[in-house]
Amino acid sequence: MSKSKIKNAAKSLKTSQGIHFDQYLDNGEMADQLNKWLLEVSWEVANKVGGIYTVIRSKVPITKKEYGNNYICLGPYNDSFVKTEVEVGESKIDVVREAANEMRQYGVHVITGNWLIEGFPQVVLFDIGSAASRLDGWKGDFFEHARIGIPYHDRESNDALIFGFCVFWFIGIFIDKVKQRQKSYVIAHFHEWLTGIGLIMTRLRGYDCALIFTTHATLLGRYLCAGSTDFYNHLPYFNLDKEAGDRQIYHRYCIERAAASCAHVFTTVSKITGIESEHLLRKKPDVLTPNGLNVQVFAALHEFQNLHAQNKEKLNAFVRGHFYGHYDFDLDKTLYFFIAGRYEFSNKGADMFIESLARLNHMLKAAGSDMTIVAFLIFPTSTNNFNIESLRGQSVAKMLRDTVQNVQSDIGKRLYEICLRGQLPKGEQILQPGDIIELKKCIYASQRSALPPICTHNVNDDNRDPILNALRRCRLFNDRWDRVKVIFHPEFLRSTSPLLPLDYEEFVRGCHLGVFPSYYEPWGYTPAECTVLGVPNISTNLSGFGCFMEEHVNEPQTYGIYVVDRRFKSAEESVRQLAQYMFDFTRLTRRQRIILRNRTERLSELLDWNTLGIYYHRARQMALTRIHPEIEDEMLRFTNESLSNQSTPAVSRSSTPAPPDHDDEGSDEDEEHQTPQTSTDQKVNDQTYRPSFPRPASATHLSLDKQFRAAAVAAANASAAADDEPTLTSAADDEVSQITLGKENQPTAPPANPTKKVDEKVDFGLPDHGAFSDAHDGQRQEPHMDRKASISTQQDFSAPDVLHQSGSSGNICSFEPTSGQTTAFSTPFGDKQNVTTTDGKQQS
């Protein structure tokens, strides 16, 4: 897979299903003309709790390019984060300012401003404490209309309910204000179960708002995996109500499941999470929305290699101090491996990593290798202070370094004075007895009989800590003869630490290999961050990232992406495979590791939000289309007007697209079999040339078989010759479906679809409507203009038919869960549609 192929793969993702994502990135011009708004609701807007904070924050720039100032983030008010991350002030958007002021009149503290991140988005934050007095009334409303009760003692659920009702209240006022000006299209995107109550109440109220719900990991799935359950093998057989009740999260589970059912579009972040949602939420995702990152592009490859060398030297300084007295290995032959994440011992694969390290230690000693592995485990847990031995080690190393620098300075002065006299210095003149005494003091002080510590902090209840117990069981104690050394750092990395003064990005850049053998990882930002930073990494086929890379990259291990099979192999086989991957990595030469880092960094384009943002765009368009089918025509009309306003110069155009950029490493098979290209110039004036749109789906589903394409091109050329049209000169032209040169240059295709509407119904391999879709999906919902957003939902509150359909309709959507497999949420799943792939095979 050459560099040009990676670029083509990224380009094909950007034009998924015939949608050219780049044409919608107009800094909100189309959204402003159509009065289209996006409200993104998350508990982690300007409130860092977990990985969703990274998702929202990194996605803001690409979303602002599409929606401009019509993009607003809604979240809870957290004073500690707002002080450093939000510029508080009155909103410059009239409808937002009016909605916030109206809520303030009823005593709810609403904070508006701008989030101080790239993109500078508008944020609306709700102070949960200011609305706490309404908790009991809102609990009654929620139970009356959704039949979900929330216990008094669950503080997190109580906070979620207050936040959900504040969001629901704000959306109601916002829609009323927006519609007073002109016709509008409002989309509300909710993340995770903590925001589910707002989505449920918005759907119950019948607001004219397209609703999207994204689960980044199912709530019940997290609990089941944390309980050492054989999760994936028993996934179809769990008694969901019983499992949730046993863990005292039944009400949370009902909120998440109801939110997935009420949303117009339900999405998850990966295929593996989609399978999980089918069984645990009884809802199949409409769209998969993989998570991306903001990728920093370097002008030259050596730039990020230099960053690796600089940060590795900082790690070297820490290792010298940590292993003082036992520092008998060569740092030039030392590799740094690491694992990091939330402290979920089994879910994050820490158990498998430690077991594999023990086997790697044995393999290195048996092979007589001179390589040393220092493995870092970064998992924050409860501690009371730094380990005394760890601090002493850094102090001893600093003392020795300062002493050596003083001796060096003195020796330099003596050399200068002696040579200035015209004499050659002798040994006793260079290193004097006083210098030797000072050096001996430092050497004797750096000796110790105890082994270097395996943990940098004093962990509370260390006799019960899973990682420390696993290290003891595997006898990884940092002995002299061990080729694998371990360091457990139970705290988040920060550049102000007196022990390991590095932030997370610097630490990752300094390491050689990231190891993440997760058992439960819906996406996996840690291996994705490694890839973007050019660090080879190991993941599993039970993580969303691993599945994504296996699907889009041919032979990912050649690009530094190793995927351990934990889905179809036993635990013993997976441990062996992981240990073998790490052992093979230790046998690479320094030059081979540099090449591998270069190849890993190339894949970063596939993980950029400029590439993956199209999946969220598709989800939003699908949700809008289900309540406003006319939005397709509106957007197409706007696109046509924009294109017609652009002047098209009369220039000579070639009938053959420009060849792709070749890789620096050499030609691949495709490049070896390229045919010479000829160009046939044709004059195109303003009257005959018109900008064309993506080709119909029938034209893009041609087989990639070389003979078939050659025959198709020959037929097209024959037809073109009969009509005096320019000919297609290369069979490779048909592969470049993203480049169109006007109707006259297209191969013969069905004439019924000269253009392709935005989000035209294409076979996604998933049902067009979610498994819990109702009769209202696909139909425009009339706005309830007579209903005003009220403080309590008691006023004029009648639930629409969406949640009270009869059982004979086949779409049961009641909120009264029952035990067993006949849960009231469940409906028959839509049959999977057959998809004809480009190689002609049928998928089900």
Please render the helix and strand layout as text:
Elements: H1 3-14, H2 29-34, E1 36-41, H3 51-67, E2 71-76, H4 79-85, E3 86-88, H5 94-104, E4 110-115, E5 122-126, H6 135-146, H7 155-179, E6 185-191, H8 196-205, E7 210-215, H9 219-226, H10 240-246, H11 250-262, E8 265-268, H12 271-280, E9 287-288, H13 301-322, E10 334-340, H14 350-367, E11 372-378, E12 383-386, H15 388-420, H16 427-430, H17 433-445, E13 457-459, H18 466-473, E14 484-489, H19 504-510, E15 513-515, H20 525-532, E16 537-540, H21 544-552, E17 561-564, H22 571-586, H23 590-602, H24 609-627, H25 631-645, E18 652-654, H26 669-672, E19 681-683, H27 697-700, H28 706-722, E20 835-836, E21 842-843
Parallel strand pairs: 1-2, 1-6, 2-5, 6-7, 7-8, 8-9, 10-11, 10-15, 11-14, 15-16, 16-17
Antiparallel strand pairs: 3-4, 4-5, 12-13, 18-19, 20-21
Helix pairs in contact: 1-24, 5-7, 7-8, 8-11, 13-15, 13-19, 14-18, 14-22, 15-17
